[in-house]
Amino acid sequence: MVTPPQVLLKTPNLAPDAPIIAVPMCVKFIDGQNYHTVGEKYLTALIDGAGAYPLSFPALGPVLPVEALLDHVDGLLLTGSPSNVGVHHYQGDPDRDDSPQDPGRDAVTLPLIRAALARDMPLLAICRGFQELNVALGGSLFTRIHEQPGKLDHRGADGPYDAIYRPAHDLLLEKGSAFADILGTERTIINSVHWQAIDRPADQLIVEGRAPDGVIEAVRVRDKRFALGAQWHPEYRCVDNVDSMRLFQAFGAAARAYAASRRSSAAPRKSAGHAA
Prior knowledge:
Shape: globular
Structural class: alpha/beta
Number of strands: 13
Order of helices and strands: EEEHEHEHEHEHEHEEEEEH
Largest sheet: 9 strands, mixed
Radius of gyration: 19 Å
CATH class: Alpha Beta
Number of helices: 7
Distance between the termini: 58 Å
């Protein structure tokens, strides 16, 4: 019998009024059944980095209306995944024959992104989530970025996770960008574990950072309080990486501000003439 490792959080106890972050799940087919899952590293990064409670959301499509979920949360985290966004959502070139797909997740995340942005809810999109953000807003993707002329192989190395998520290449940030402001630098080093990448950015996205080969790595949604996308994986060993902690802390601060506003507007109003 294999015993999974014990989860050791740096921040085991959150404040009762900490913000709540929705985390859409993926669908995994295991032993003849569908399971709804989310990577633990994203949950611990929210707790340790953002100081927020994660609320995992199953990928059941229209059965669970996204507006009902968003009424009860203060932010949205879109995670990475081994699966790829279906090409029919952006009229892309045919994907590879062995491309892992998750239509259940697509059915949830794409409308969820649009609904969260309509509320100006804080949003952080990572890897697959980064690609979903672009597709949800009308952009398109390369299905195999490493096959494009002049591009690096962004798929990552084989081996243990520390090798897969090792620093891979520079991230070059635009001067005065939100990412540069949060990270306190215009150049840093990031990991790289992805097949797909942004081809045509959606009109609402502002490109804030690229890899040395020009691949888009960081985006911001125009005119939103906090809506950022990272093509890399800042959640991996978040507490051991200064840049990752700064990004998740900024996300947590935005979610706390949103939570204060949401909860004050939801509080029952006292009738005139009654004692407090």
